[in-house]
């Protein structure tokens, strides 16, 4: 699973909710914190600073996990 897949699924006019959920579940199995960051960023529309506050972690931790969740383009 890649964050690109989640981005594509979330932007489609008719979102395949089941496919999106499966991708997020796979990410959660690999790294629960990264999955939570993706949820908060895409669905909660939170900024990095806000995500750090919600999760009780540092800004750098969220930045690092977000970069790890995203494939190199």
Describe this structure in words.
- By secondary structure, the chain is an all-alpha fold.
- The protein has helices at 3-11, 17-30, 32-42, 48-55, 59-69.
- Helix 3 (32-42) crosses helix 5 (59-69) and helix 4 (48-55) packs across helix 5 (59-69).
- The longest helix has 14 residues, at 17-30.
Task: Sum this structure up briefly.
The chain is built from five helices and no strands. With 73 residues, it is mainly alpha-helical.
Question: What's the structural blueprint in terms of helices and strands?
Answer:
Elements: H1 3-11, H2 17-30, H3 32-42, H4 48-55, H5 59-69
Helix pairs in contact: 1-2, 2-3, 3-5, 4-5
Structural class: mainly alpha
Determine the number of helices (DSSP H or I, runs of at least 4 residues).
Answer: 5
Q: Termini distance?
A: 15 Å
Strand content: under 5%
Question: Which assembly state applies to the chains in this document?
Answer: single chain
